[in-house]
Amino acid sequence: MKKRNIPFGYQWENGVITAHPTESKIVIGIFTAYITGQSLLQIAEALNKNGVEYLPGVVKWNKACLLYTSPSPRDRTRS
Fold first, then answer.
1. Burial (CB count within 10 angstroms: exposed 0-12, middle 13-18, buried 19+), residue 30
2. How confident is the model at residue 7, as a pLDDT?
3. Can you spell out the DSSP letters for 35-77?
4. Is 33 exposed, middle or buried (0-12, 13-18, 19+ CB in 10 A)?
């Protein structure tokens, strides 16, 4: 699988990292699900079931993908 060079929910726009209009809404849903008690596995399974693409043409969410939705490396170490 191709690797993302910036966290999910962000994009390069004119040389600047900005919020991706569609992906950022998904990130909000991911964080909402997590803070309301869903596990990372449950969230990944729901994203896969709903056909949410992590990369163009790739619907394969897992814990590592979810941790990479955070732009902070410190947050990525939490599970």
1. buried
2. 86
3. HTT--HHHHHHHHHHTT--SBTTB----HHHHHTTSS-TTGGG
4. middle
Name the token pair of 3: 């690797």
The predicted pLDDT at position 5 comes to 79
Query: In terms of C-beta distances under 8 Å and separation of at least 24 residues, what long-range contacts does 1-7 make, across chains too?
Result: 1/55, 1/58, 1/60, 2/55, 2/58, 4/54, 4/55, 4/68, 7/68, 7/69, 7/70, 7/71
pLDDT along the chain (79 residues), means of 10: 75 91 94 93 96 92 85 50
Per DSSP, the three-state class of 29 is helix
Residue 29 main-chain phi, psi, to 5 deg? -65, -40
**What letter would DSSP give residue 20?**
-
Which tokens belong to 78? 């939490």
